[in-house]
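User: Can you help me understand a structure? I only have the sequence.
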Amino acid sequence: MTEHTLTVAGVAVDTRHWIGGERVASAGTFTDVSPIDGSTIGEIARGTAAEAEAAVAAAKAAFPAWAATSRAERARILHAVADGVEKRIEELAIVETTDNGALLRSHRRGVMPRVAHNFRFFADWLLTLEHADFETRGHTNHVSWDPAGPSVLITPWNAPLMLSTWKVAPALAVGNTVVLKPAEWSPLTASLLADIAAEAGLPAGVLNVVQGYGSEIGDALTSHPDVRRISFTGSVPTARRISAAAAANLTPLSLELGGKSPLLVFADADLDLAVDLAVEQYDNAGQVCLAATRILVEEPAAEEFTRRFVAKASGLVQGDPRDEATDVGPTIHPRQLEKIDGFVRRALAAGARAVIGGHPGDGQYYAPTLLTDVAQGSEIVQEEVFGPVLTLQTFRSEEEAVRLADDTRFGLAATLATGDPERAARVAARLVAGTVWVNCFFVRDLQAPFGGSRHSGVGREGGTWSFDFYCDLKNTVTAPKGFKDHG
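Assistant: Let's start by predicting it. Here is the structure, written out as tokens:
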């Protein structure tokens, strides 16, 4: 152990940056606090423009050799990273639960296995990536994916490692080098990922991890002229700042931003299924960008839906996320709790009614909340709360349901429950959303495009769409004449 090593639930975590294959300290630090009980986890290296410069320089230096590495070898190393993740699932799970408060059982059974799958999927997808050649007036067109270069990846705190590797895996697979900047409220598993990648044989400088607080290091990374791609998941205001910084260098961006997604429940739906879908929106204490926080129920079913919802939601267990019986854990940070409570208090003052919840609990816990009597144009309906707060409105017709569903500035996802397959297809076609779930929620295949419309994002990632983003696509057109005979 060193002065830069924390012991988190028995797991050693280095608090320094990982740059060019080495641990690098900073002059300053910031404090990492566990949302479970507000206890201090430790001090984390606080990066500045100097660390940003060093990380980009390391990624730039490592890029030519990594880009020239064969697809098969890159895929082999990514599979080795996945092997390393699988060997340390328990360690990664408990560290991330301590750091961001999400359920330990979910990290063990779903999130961390998905981290390994991210690497395996994109490693295998790389080996199948081909466009068929085509002809134009006898000329052959051959489309290829050229690695773009150093990529800056800025990731959120609500699913830190899974969302980081959703970006890291395809960027590395195509031959880019990476500078990963994890969220300041949940930096620890990114540090463990650096260790795992190094143990798997990833060359020095191919993956760099830098921590920071606020915009200190982010501004330096996103405005750097040697950065060739920027992928960001987070808030709209931060995306605007990143976009402005990237504009000077015309750096391509992928932005996955907030949401205010609807759940449409038609009277012909299986109400038990619809209630299950609605209560599922409290997952991760509502801190999920895809969450369907606006429940829209057809009037004839509204009373019965509400009764069943209250009965089921009232049975949720809120408490320590390390407890197997817990369903809803804490919010990530006191600032986030204050933000959530501010939304609810203003909504109640404006005439909303709390059917359940409507208040904070002890520490950083906020009671699962359902608000009714809310106006379509109100703040609570229009703005992302990012907490365990749902609203319920009713509609009388399919036309009104679609109008209400589409009436926000967001367009990340939508969920609908109906027993009529024709209605499902008709309504899904009219919803403004990057993903529409019908009688299900949160089913995601890495082959599918993912992203949002309107203020929910720019671009799509997933499957070939990820490789399209992280590469410079090249078309080579060859004439059938002009070559000398080398026979």
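Now, to help you interpret it: The mean pLDDT is 96. The longest strand covers residues 139-147. Let me know which part you'd like to focus on.
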